[in-house]
Structures are given as C-alpha cells and as structure tokens.
Automatic annotation (TrEMBL):
It comes from Pipa carvalhoi (Carvalho's Surinam toad). Transmembrane segments: none annotated. Gene3D superfamilies: 1.20.80.10. It comes from the Eukaryota. The keyword Ribonucleoprotein does not apply. GO terms for biological process: autophagy; fatty acid metabolic process. GO terms for cellular component: peroxisomal membrane. Keywords: Autophagy, Coiled coil, Lipid-binding, Membrane, Peroxisome, Transmembrane, Transmembrane helix, Transport. It holds the Pfam family ACBP. This is Acyl-CoA-binding domain-containing protein 5.
Length: 105
C-alpha cells in the first residue's frame, strides 16, 4: 500500500503544524508506509508551524473549490469560512498569529 500524494501532503502539514520539523529517525525498510509518511514530513524541512497550518488550509480550499455545491458542502463552507479569512489575512500580513486567531473560532 502506498498513500496517495494528497494524503501524504495533508499528513506532512499536520505533523509539521503540530510537532514542528521532523526530527525522528527514518523508519526501516519493513515499514514502507511509515517511510512514505516520514519522507513527506521530512521534505518540509524547517517550515514553521504557522506556515504548515496555512498550507494545510490552502490545500483543503483547493479540494473544496472543485466539489459540486450541495447543501452539505455549503454547510461545511460556513463552518470553515473563518479559517479561510484568517489564512488570507496571514498571507497579506494582517492579523495576529494563526494559533491565537483560531482559538476564537
């Protein structure tokens, strides 16, 4: 089993955002899924936790923009809409740190 590139991208952004840069040893050859995941996370290097959070939301936004608009999708967009606003503010240098902004959502 090989995780998809999309799954690995989300995994790596999640790990970077929650734990920071990868500083664990690479899993052994007998753990191919672990190696794929480690490689994806390690490839982010010294990306900041905040940048990883922003990248995660950006990737989610790309997926949602390709989905057909249904009642369920509209409900989801209403819930996560504030995250988009925070990410856009951070990209343009406005607002406080993402982590403190997210605590109010």
């Amino acid at each position: 089993f090989q995780p998809s590139n999309m799954m690995l991208k989300f995994y790596s952004f999640f790990k970077q955002a929650t734990l920071g840069p990868c500083n664990t040893p690479r899993p052994g050859f007998w753990d191919p899924v672990g190696r794929y995941k480690w490689d994806a996370w390690s490839s982010l290097g010294d990306m900041s936790k905040e940048d990883a959070m922003i990248a995660y939301v950006d990737e989610m936004k790309k997926i949602l923009e390709t989905m057909p608009v249904t009642e369920k999708v509209e409900e989801l967009l209403q819930v996560i809409g504030p995250f988009y606003e925070i990410v856009e503010d951070k990209k343009h240098g406005r607002g406080s740190a993402v982590t403190s902004d997210l605590s109010s959502v």
